[in-house]
Amino acid sequence: MEHVLRSLLVLAILFFLETPCWAAGEQINPLKDPIQLLDSLEKRRQELEERGRQLDAREIELKQMEDRLGKRVTALEELRTSIEKDLLEEKKMDDANVERLAKIYAGMKTKAAAERLQKLDRKVALKVLKAMKERVASKILGKMDAPAATELADGLGITSADRRNKR
Question: Whole-number mean pLDDT of the chain?
Fold first, then answer.
């Protein structure tokens, strides 16, 4: 069947190449070797088919990569959500502990509370003082050494002018 089609194609090419070109009024040069043209066309068709197969394979590969990437993005989003949830829980626990410490220090004698707060990490001491009522925190700051009280007051956002106005 393919041989018959090839023969018909050769005859058609020869026929059209031998007839004058009606639009231009001139003769087209006949091909020197129509079989060579057919072979060349067949080779080009095979190359295009191979290129098409390569493109199809590449498209499948890209789709698989896209799917894997989508799964990774989803996993990372789930991880981020989990981490945010854990951080929120940790912050709630931290806040609860600070509130509890603030109540404990507020219930102590001011001199003892001042001595112990001075020994705490500065950030923790600031959180505890912020959680206290201002009146209690100011009494505790008043019993601290001047440098420690100044440092903590600055951390609380109380300026020197604010401290002078309160006196």
Answer: 83
Mean pLDDT of the region 13-27: 53
Q: What is the pTM of this model?
A: 0.50
Tokens 């290129």 found at: 51
What is the CATH T-level fold of the domain 32-166, as seen in this structure?
Answer: Annexin V; domain 1 (1.10.220)
| pLDDT over 80 at 4, yes or no | no
Q: According to the model, what pLDDT value does residue 17 have?
A: 55
φ and ψ at residue 158, rounded to 5 degrees: -90, 120
What φ, ψ does residue 157 adopt, rounded to 5°?
90, 15
3-state SS, one letter per residue, for 75-132:
HHHHHHHHHHHHHHHHHHHHHHHHHHHHHHHHHCCHHHHHHHHHHCCHHHHHHHHHHC
The residues spanned by each domain of the chain are 1-31, 32-166
Burial class (CB in 10 A: 0-12, 13-18, 19+), 85: exposed
Q: How many CB atoms lie within 10 A of CB 128?
A: 26
Q: What is the mean pLDDT of residues 52-57?
A: 95
